Amino acid sequence: MPQIKTYCRICLSSCGLIADVEGDEVVRVRADRDHPLSGGYSCSKGRGLPEFHRSPRRLLAPKVRRGENFEQMGWDEVLDDLAVVAP
After folding, report:
1. Which class for 13: exposed (0-12), middle (13-18), buried (19 or more C-beta within 10 A)?
2. Distance (Å) of CA 21 to CA 8, 49, 76
3. What are the contacts of 1-8 at 24+ separation with CB within 8 A?
4. Residue ranges of the 4Fe-4S Mo/W bis-MGD-type domain (predicted)?
5. Residues of the chain with CATH 3.30.200.210
6. pLDDT tens, 77-86?
7. What pTM, to 2 d.p., does this model score?
8. CA within 13 Å, CB half, 14
9. 87 pLDDT above the threshold of 80
10. Tens digits of per-residue pLDDT, 29-72?
């Protein structure tokens, strides 16, 4: 099983991680003992990244609020809308 060195992007600590990957799926994540900043530490959120990737609640496309609901939109439409309201 391929192992990929990476880091956690959940917070600013950027803890070093090693991800076990099967195909395009992250199967397991553990702390990277050789990482110069975290030195083998990772919190439970970082180690839980595989569950975040597989969550049925994960957003796979942009959505915009319309009243009480969210509607899926295309990236081009979202970026056009942002360009109008961004300073």
Report:
1. middle
2. 15, 12, 31
3. 1/27, 5/32, 7/35, 8/42, 8/43, 8/45, 8/46, 8/49
4. 1-57
5. 3-54
6. 999 988 998 7
7. 0.66
8. 5
9. no
10. 999 999 998 999 999 988 898 888 888 998 889 998 999 999 99
Give the pLDDT of residue 54: 86
Whether the CB-CB separation of 16 and 7 falls below 8 Å is answered with yes
Any bridge partners for residue 4, and if so which? 19
Select 3-54's CATH number: 2.40.37.10, 3.30.200.210, 1.10.10.10, 3.20.20.140.
3.30.200.210
Provide the CB-side half-sphere exposure for 9 (13 A, CA).
Answer: 3
What pLDDT sits at residue 71? 93
Tokens 């950027």 label which residue?
14
CA angle 73, 76, 78 (to 5 degrees): 50
